[in-house]
Batch of 2 targets.
Target 1
Amino acid sequence: MKDTAIIKEARDAGRSALDEENGKKLLSEYGISVPKSTVVSDVETITDALKGFKFPLVVKVVSRDILHKSDAGGVAVGLQDTEEVKTAIIEMAQRPAIAQANVEGYLVEEMAPTGQEVVVGGVRDPQFGPMIMVGLGGIFVEVLSDVTFRVCPINRSDATEMLNELKGKALLDGARGRLPVDRDAIIDVMMKMGGDSGLLVELADDVDEADINPLIVSDNGAVAVDARFILADTPAATPSQEPLSDESVRKKFEPLFKPNTIAVIGASASGHTIANTFIRRVTEFGYTGSIYPIHPKASEVDGLKAYPSLGETPDPVDYAYIAISSSAVPPLIEAANGRVSYAQVISSGFGEVEEGIALQTELVESARSGGCRVIGPNCLGTYSPRGGLTFPENAPRALGNVGVISQSGGLGTDIVKRGQMRGIAYSGLVTVGNCADINPNDILEFYLADDQTRVIGLYLEGVQDGRRFFELLNRAKGQKPIVVLKGGRTAEGRKAAASHTGSLAGNEQVWEALERQTGCVLAETLDDFLDCLMAFQVLAPRSERPTNRIAMFGNGGGTSVLATDYFARHGLSVEPFEADTIQALEDLQMPPGTSIANPVDAPVGTLQQENGLIAEKVLDAVYTHFKPDAVAMHLNLAAFVGRGPIDPLENLIGAALRIQKKYPGQAHFLLALRSDGNPDVEASKKKYTEMALGVGIPVFAELSNIAIALEALKHVEQFQVTHIARVQMAKQS
Ligand code: ADP
Ligand code: MG
């Protein structure tokens, strides 16, 4: 940790920001070059003050009242001798904005060598802690907002990727006849700011916003010629807890995902409440453990023996489902006396409303003193096929590998039910509501440790403890894909930012940084979210060859033309086949009307050939010659209706399967079964979806859904590539 005397002095002097001179001192303590400078207050002594300085020089006004010195006429560059420096100061002092300000002096400094202006900034996110930004200077940052962010700490490969993300990056490579700039020098500065022992990390409790605007980067080195620091008045976010071992996390959550005993609070002995519904659903779902209804008076509820309190059940309770009026919950939980592991509180009327905030605190305190963990309140329940636990009606019993956490109960139900219709099978889904105690990070930690879970989906509204979330995402390292559906992403960032960096740092930037930095996938809609989960539940990311080259095959020319454009917009290439592929397809002598470029457009008549087995030959030719990274096959089911006795669909799917077996690991295979919504067509879609999923082919509604899924797959694959490179880089250094 560096000496922070500069910050302490500023604070003692009642300042909430560092002036340029002190800002630069701080930078140079962290090894960042700044121009040689001095502050003068009077022109008479200037000759002495400038001894040892190399001309040309720059003069800048020093005043707390002036944020942007050039706007006020307070910067003069290229001064060739002492006389010019004097004149510049005298003229500057007369400018209206400066004459009115409380001027503390004039900073005189050496000119930096000519180069490209770059901005390096820092800002503290209330959830995620220090973040670093880089962009190109001038209009690029001010008008075009061409900047990119990361959560700190970053490493050199993060810094390299950040520079590569800038739209104006050509300027760094020496566009317009200039010399390429010293990228390593920029990266060094970024590391000194945002690396493990960088300024933003070490001084996270003190620095709220930082701007090096500009850093002038020549072909050899970089100099910070302007510096601005806004001091923080609260400590930075830190992770709330140490990571647990996989084994202990699995053990910790066993009672939730596989409860041996369930207590139900709120079921009526005479009427019918949501808790009665819960009993019925869990029973129908096939739950085999004990269910204890808790009822103050009744001795029986829904045919089950009831108990007066949580403290009086025959065995301790793994999972309690609580749906009673909010004020009755805390005393109820307290009475559990260490005999309940998880209490899921369905009731609302807690922290989500002003009047319930105190009650929510009381709820957590009662749970702590009663030795149990609370999920919710204000949620709908937990769905865990391995434990026979459900909250949606007729939920699928099949145990899958998709683990979900939802901050919304209703959306949680949608995810289970819509996922079911598409063929997504879950390893669990927990609705966490207000997250008074257990929060999404806790469940995320479980899914990361859970062998049953291969892909994780999160619906989040707010993030508590962003620092821990960041660490968990990092722990996943793209090995278990994580898909995030985030509500409230576009909400404006800092309203009262005092730096450029601050004003550019919104919620959206934070999430984009997380996506790039941790390899998680951000989904924009519920549909996209489910499409991504569908892809990852079946397809394993292939890090040795990230997906890019796509072959498209199916019936519907217009559909595939539209899709080709859509794929391109999502960074996926459906490029025309080369001559050898075309030749191989021509040799198949398919009927006229069949287009054999990429996309391959085969009308129903063609697909009916050889009872659908023609598809195997087409795919074989494409796999042998074109060697795609992925194949998007699309079948317009309505077009097969009324087209004679031959229903080739089974054979088409079989062909896909055989080709996948013949060329293992060659291409991801994704199928769009397109329906016009007609009940007959829907029925056939359902049948063939099951068939395809049964043989490991993920099924989507349209080619555009496939594009979203492939884009996500590619993102994770590319992340894995850079992650592997990073690990190697770290080993070498
Ligand atoms: P402000 O951002 O408050 O207007 P700066 O200190 O950034 O003031 O100066 C404005 C511009 O002047 C810089 O963007 C840069 O182009 C130029 N400049 C300032 N100091 C130097 C320096 N030491 N060497 C070269 N150019 C400089
Ligand atoms: Mg500036």
Note: The chain has 26 helices and 29 strands.
Target 2
Amino acid sequence: MTTTDRPRTPDPVPRTLQRPRRNRATPARRALVRETVLTPADLVLPLFVHDHPAEPIASMPGCFRQPIDGVVATAREAWALGIPAVAIFPKVPEPLKDPRGSAATDPEGLVPRTVRALKAALPGLVVITDVALDPYSSDGHDGVVEGSRILNDETLPLLAAMAVAQAQAGADLVAPSDMMDGRVAAIRTALDAAGFIEVGILSYCVKYASAFYGPFRDALDSAPRPGRPTDKLTYQMDPANVREGLREVALDEAEGADVLMVKPGLPYLDVIRQVREATALPVAAYHVSGEYAMLKAAADRGWLDYDKCLLESLVCLKRAGADMIFTYGAIDAARLLKAHVALR
Ligand code: PBG
């Protein structure tokens, strides 16, 4: 008879008093102790609009450039699932692009028409519009280009006019993603002067010069043009820095921002945490195109479970400190959450 065959008697000295596994024993016990709960109300769905029939985006499987009625239909689906907000990104026809992104202020432009259609169909939906020149710029930069320089102060009035045009169309939040210095103040001043005191500013406050935006630039054909600076390193932040991001936080707070964003998402969880601790403002995180594309590509090869990796990515962004998350997987995630996939 070996020792293991004997009836178990309590150890005189327990092997361990601490057994964290007790709280993990069943789905219901795990639910009771779960610290972060992702809900569809945390999500923002980015949507691509153009004036042509729907067209899939090769590097973002499951995402489309859609005509306005398609965008409205997708927004309706998101809203029905409990997603409170969409963010609109236009693919502007090449002939309408110029160095100053003039099409951005046309009241009959793609974005104002889309915003009006969304607000008419879904008045409660939060509509967020992007403020930056790149989709409208024949140079493919977020500001006005002169030689090898991206001009800061010359760009500010253009961004302010763009934000006012979007507010006039009915945008709830304008979202400057350009990283020019002083743009939040310029936009706030212009919105207030035009009477749009209730239109908020969601600032892409700590936005890095990231290669994870690649698929997005394919979607909009908005990458820097030949002969122009090939990167955005003179305005977007160096991925190596975080203190610099806290400086951006202080400035955007002082300039009147309503929500502060960190972008990209998963590679920057430490930044999200530090921004969360540095401000009382709501914090947004952007699970960007490259992060989404990686999940889709790996899942396509059978290497990852897209559904599980998506929910895990989003809950981690929330755990790090994000109050809201922009993700191309918003509808997928909301469906999975409705099916209680999270209670495992
Ligand atoms: C444009 C803008 C970009 C993204 C959002 N707004 C691209 C860029 O800065 O080059 C990226 C979004 C994504 O990759 O999902 N200013």
Note: Residues 130, 132, 134, 142, 177-178, 213, 216-217, 288-289 surround PBG (CB under 6 Å).
